[in-house]
Amino acid sequence: MPGLLIANRGEVALRIIRTARDRGFHTVAVHDCDESDAFHVRAADEARLLPGRGAAAYLDIEQIVRAAHTSGCTMLHPGYGFASENPDLADACARTGITFVGPNSQTLRLFGDKAATRALAEEAGVPVLPATSGATGLPEALAFIDAQSGAPVMVKALGGGGGRGIRVVTRAADLDRALERCRSEALRGFGQADVYVERYLPRARHIEVQVLGDGVSEPIHLWDRECTIQRRHQKLIEIAPAPNLPDATRSALLQSALALARATAFRGACTFEFLVDADSPDLYYFIEGNPRLQVEHGVTEEITGVDLVAAQLALADGVSLTEQGLSQESIGGPRGIAVEARVTLEPAATASRQITQFDLPAGPGIRVETHGHTGMEATNDYDPLLAKIIVHRRDVGLADVLDHLEAQLSQVVVEGVPTNVALLRSVLADPGIRQGAVTTSFVDEHLLARAPAAEGTHAAELFAPSAGTVVAVAAESGQWVERGDPIAVLEAMKMEYEIIAPSAGRLGRVTVMVGDSVAEGATVATLATLDGTSEATTIAPPELPDPDEARADVADIKRRHEAGLDFARPDAITRRHDAGKRTARENLADLFDPSSFREYGPLLIAAQRRRRSLDDLEANTPADGLVAGFGRVNASGLGAEVPDVAALAYDYTVLAGTQGLQNHKKAERMFELARRRGSPVVIFAEGGGGRPGDTDNQAKATGMDLGTFVALGRLNGHVPTVGIASGRCFAGNAALLGACDVVIATRDANIGMGGPAMIEGGGLGVFAPEAIGPAPAQAANGVVDVLIDDEAAAVAVARKYIGYFQGSTRQWSCADQRRLRNAVPERRSRVFDIRALIHTLADDDSVLELREMFGQGMVTCLARVEGRSLGIVANDGRHRGGAIDSAGADKMARFLRLCDTYGLPILSLCDTPGFMVGPEAEETAMVRHVSRLFVTGPNLSVPLCAIIVRKSYGLGGQAMAGGSFRVPDAMLAWPTGELGAMGPEGAVRLGFRRELDAIDDPHEREQTFRSLLADYEAQGRATNAASVFEIDDVIDPADTRAWIVGTFDRAESRSAEGVRRYLDTW
Length: 1066
Prior knowledge:
Elements: E1 3-6, H1 10-22, E2 26-31, H2 39-43, E3 46-49, H3 55-58, H4 61-70, E4 75-77, H5 87-95, E5 99-100, H6 105-112, H7 114-123, H8 138-147, E6 153-157, E7 166-169, H9 175-190, E8 195-199, E9 204-214, E10 220-231, E11 234-240, H10 247-263, E12 267-277, E13 284-290, H11 297-304, H12 308-316, H13 328-331, E14 337-344, E15 352-354, E16 357-359, E17 366-370, E18 377-379, E19 385-393, H14 398-409, E20 413-415, H15 421-429, H16 431-434, H17 442-447, E21 457-463, E22 468-473, E23 480-481, E24 486-492, E25 495-500, E26 505-510, E27 517-518, E28 523-530, H18 552-563, H19 570-578, H20 584-591, E29 598-600, H21 614-620, E30 626-631, E31 645-650, H22 661-677, E32 681-684, H23 708-713, E33 721-725, E34 728-730, H24 732-738, E35 742-746, E36 750-752, H25 756-761, H26 775-780, E37 786-788, H27 791-803, H28 834-841, E38 848-850, E39 858-865, E40 868-875, H29 886-901, E41 906-912, H30 919-922, H31 926-936, E42 944-953, H32 954-960, E43 970-973, E44 978-980, H33 984-991, H34 993-997, H35 1002-1019, H36 1022-1027, ...
Parallel strand pairs: 1-2, 1-4, 2-3, 4-5, 31-32, 32-33, 33-35, 34-36, 35-37, 40-41, 41-42, 42-43, 42-44, 43-45
Antiparallel strand pairs: 6-7, 6-8, 9-10, 9-12, 10-11, 11-14, 12-13, 14-19, 15-18, 16-20, 17-19, 21-28, 22-24, 22-27, 23-26, 24-25, 26-28, 29-30, 30-31, 38-39, 39-40
Helix pairs in contact: 5-6, 14-15, 29-31, 33-35
């Protein structure tokens, strides 16, 4: 029985469990420490505790994926909300072999960026409202509102959804405040504060289209939904299909949604949302796509008969729409009308309340989705949705369905907590809904019409729109205010509600203070306005500050940052350049794409305040000797979005690049963030190790409880890591270097686990730094993977190495492949250059060899074929005839694990007489070393293509094929290929020793030997092996690239069984 983990809670978890059980899944629920007895936990076959409390527990991707893995689940359904649209969750599932029920991470990233989805819509010919592009600040927002000729605009969060982080702005003077509120709300709701500005459509209907796609065949729509009835941008009531919508507009919306799904090759369920001009319904605009299940999916299921959760599960499992029996024809037209009402908790002054009675309606044509029950503790920690009540009727009009829903709501009994049931009934009874005369502001406009009149003046009370806590009071009694000026701000349910003056006037009394808890409808202030022209018309709007003029606090921060830059430290930088070296910041500038570096911890100074003045530390220990941050690498050369890269550069101009108390904290923080973000890591490791001179933390005795090395170790197998050594790299700096996947070193580098002082202190002698671990020696012994001339070359190699794990390149070229036909000499005893063969076979300038000077009989390199990254292992016949020795076996095994860890397919080019044998070889522990290949090869989870270019004899030949000729996804040979259980000469002498020894005549014995040898060689020719299907084919060398591409495109990864790959440092 396959296992499905539901990474959610409440009614949506129950909904998914219901369908999953019907489909034969073993269901696993998750819960925080407060919900061990929740309904969704009881309903599942199994439950796992997530450490933590509240929403944070359900947002912890690492814990969720671990729960899925340890419970044996093969699939994970995210539901909606929480991490359902987080690409990091999809990536984490992919890395651990768990099927994510939803689109891939690239699609989630696209739809999570509203600026990117707007650009997609424009490319697809789908209309959008004018808007700013990307994250928007006040200057851009002011320019945009000016370009709209005074038309109102809407400030919106760039990510997230659910109506949070949205404000309508009608005048420029209110923009700054709206931007601030939206950023604050978005940061709390989604962890991302960026906003943009869009033209506001004041009279709009909110219509959305449900789409299913399998990523291959034509996507289908499941009709549309009316989501116009909202309160403060939060949906209250949904109707399917949308009523009173002209046929031409409906058709245009459906086709636009399909065009967007088609443009992204969408796989899964997606909702595309649009605004339709209520006054000109032929005008519509795309606003966003939600690549997940929607709260309101039930009304679509009712009018189509399609179980959307079942469709999601099947699509995730690779079942096409056709195989599910789903097509546009099978969907047909809408079957009746379905209307949903969302019953939600209303904000209250207390954080936790108990439901003392909970009764919901039931009956034919009524569908209820809820997790509520009598005795349940209702908290403010989660979304306030308590229940969804859906009424579905056929062969009746909308008014009858609305009447039926209102009647069902009258039977709802929820006591102990406030709900919106009364509001829902009031809205349903309004004639405007039945006439189809609703817009997105319909509810707000009808509920806020409260303004008692008096003679000569208009006296108005300003009410709290919701229960909540006062977080700001912006005006005082007696103050004159303009229309739109803020009076107070309330916070409730993670939303901020701004109470503004509805018109110009003078405040009578302000009845609240910061920190007060107020009930919904409570009076916050009174306002007296005058008839006719008032003094308000003579007051100019507040003057906006000059954006080019920095305040004193901003100027001080800029000065502090600049003090740590290279131009502010001319003496130290000159000494560095005189030594022939680049600075840490110069190396980072070369590594990262232009203008993409974001530094972390630039204001740190050494923890030596007890010894040195603050001015001295700021001037001479900037960033505490470690410049670190995130930036883009190779972004322009790749077709897909790639994660940022984390880089840490120890600054030798600051205390010799040593590791101090503060830079240890910074390094640990960077490693933890890199793990969280899936960012590759580059470490410029030059430095002298630990720094004993930091004195500020007297609570530490030894400092051996620091987490730097652990944090880097936990990145192993999680993200690619690169260490670069130039100059002196000793002790703790060398430990970080050696923990990286790949080590790059300049020829003048010295690398050692102890520097001169430590060696001398241990009584081991006195040595100059240059005598300790010179880089050429470390390359020969396998410590250094790539030995280069200088730091510029090291950075170039690092960028190239990272690129292999960032996806395929869009442009590539290669040599004339016909040259491969002569790459291997016809005479079997003549050596050839395997590296020249590899460079001809791979894309131009795409080969990077690792550990070239170590295990020289084995070649390991990364390369590309038709832009796709792969690993290549090959035997070099110029070294011991290509025999595999201990060093070569270690080298190959480690390289195979490197490729397997990061998902690179592997090409093996075999030309070996077998394993190295003899007394001298056995002294190197051959038995253990070469056997690593028989453990590593069979357990690869990536595709393997093996090609015998010349010799493949004995166990060594099998090892080059992953342990057996049946392991590779393609087992091929070139015409020069020859195979055998042993080398020909040895096999004949061993197998026919008695016959040969019986011949006395040496000449006759030699003739017989040659005859037997020829027979053996003929039997081992590649064509003969292919004729008995020991190999898959003998190919024209010029066709090799086509075979590689075809094999890797079609081969599926063998299951990693949910276990993260671990990469040994050796």
